[in-house]
Amino acid sequence: MQAPSAPIPTWPVSSSRRQFLGYGAAGMLAAVLPGCDADGGPPHAAYSQTIEWGSQEIARALAGDPDNVAAVSIALLKNDTVVWQQAFGHASVQDNLAATIQTRFNIGSVSKVLAALAAMILRDRGLLDLDAPVAHYLPGFTMLSPEYAQITTRHLLSHSSGLPGTSMRNAFTFEPIPGYAVNAEAALADQHLKHLPGMLAVYCNDGFTMIERVVAALAKQDYASFIQANVLDPLGMTDSGFLTKRPAGGSFALPYSGGRQYPQEFVSPLATGGLTSTPGDMMKLARLFLDRGTYQSRSIVSADGIAQMGADQTTGLIINPSPQWVWGLGWDSVRHPGLAAAGVQAWQKNGGTAFFSSDFYVLPDQRLALMVTGNTGDAQRADTYRAGALAEGVLLRALLEEGSIHTLPPLVAHTAPPRATPPDLADAVGVYANYNQPMRVTANQDGSFSLSSWNGSAWQPMNASYSYRSDDWWWSNEAPISYRFEVVSGTDANGQPYRNRYLMLRGPLFGAGYNETTLPMGQQLLPLAPLSAAWQARMGKTWTVTNESPATVPSTLNGTPYATLSSLPELPGYILVRNSSYDDGLPEYQLLAPLADDRAGMTVKIPANAGRDLYELHFTTVGGNETLTIGSWVYEASVG
User: Fold this and answer.
1) Can you give the pTM of this predicted structure?
2) Are 322 and 398 in contact (CB under 8 A)?
3) SUPFAM superfamilies annotated for this entry (predicted)?
């Protein structure tokens, strides 16, 4: 799942965090290499129009964004037959190596579907109870919040555990680095939960890293070996696996960004995003779902396990202001809004790494499936590779061509409704925080409001002003996006009252524009008591990482990661933190609240995406020098 796009930075967006980061100028269309079907034959006649449309869209992306999109690979399955499988472009631009249907891509968070399958296989064997505490299986697992003991496997698989987010240390690298999952679990021992387990669902990569630990503990073997023996081998997925060491053979798509090719990318969080695969292999996995746990008459997982993965996991959530997004177990959505607009149920999982983005769909009723993967494009270009839009467009046209639907759903209208008398904005103005960019709501004299975001030194206007309209949303005249304010209040499971004011965004945020999604983009923060002298003394300082490998993607492309501490004049009592290791190339800022003079913690509880990847700070003094810890990173104060 991805947040609405921000301007693309100088190095690729880490798509794994948003859901869990060329061709020469001449002859670009001619350089698009034809692929072939799985059996080497011509395209399937029943879907010829769909295939023609999809091929043209991919060619347009390769030609329109040659500095970033070197290769795209796609496969479409109907029943037990791959009706389209084709690779376009170059696996290696530098070596003029064509991409083929055997070329493997890093598919990022699509890997989470296999993590959920692993849990279901262990459940079938009587080794795992989805609703038993994870601490029962991992006696060494602990956190500072005592409620960590309530986290279950179901919470981990449905993004509702309350874990802070993503341990990014040594996550995306140019060489294999072992020990990621062990280090991530160890770092959690010095962190609090950001919300009570089961209270809300917000995208959380570390939940699947903990699944990796659970699988290893129960199966008595490492996670990669378990998946290989229990999923990949039985399904004949011979072009899939985890890169825990440098590959000795095979064809791999290499990172390509900004007109430059990079070495092989390695993804350390295996369960959360580390699988390499081909669309053809993923169609074998899709058949497992369509056949309710069997593959070629061999049972891999129970039908109930498949059903559990595809069941709505949002029904028990306390805070859920985005009911269009229906989390499954391992799936981003088990009622994908874009396909739901056509009256079709779809299980969907988005995935990305530092350099690649993918989308995987299974339509259980129509027995249709699709996988598309390729180099992450520049979202600011009109013609580029957008996995979600491409996948949705191909699937809808396939449904139309086979007669499952009679027409494409209408595109979302962008016309603002008539103005209406606005409500009082007095309580809504102020600063709204999220995981990457504080926003400020300012009331205007005409009853409208303006939005701005913090760019590191000033508030930068985000768009024109927004006026209240007859549909109870606030619109500008130019944008297809509308906003409103929503207050969610109640009492949590510990008997503590809560009252969260969210800035809600509505618009065609994902896919091809056939549906609107409503998401909370920020939570209002109120001023706190002034910072203590200990915190004031740290303002303006920079802290440099001491334990990040120089082979990581951010270290290689942007230099040694660092953190800076400052404050916002408009919001006293908070610490504004930039941690460059979490940046997607553009500065990202979180607002933390002091928990003590040596610790600052998370401040927001935002479902879906904007509350992901939070962290807390902890200072210790060794030999008279302060050391800063963020997750599993350790920092020292920079001289000067």
Assistant:
1) 0.93
2) no
3) beta-lactamase/transpeptidase-like
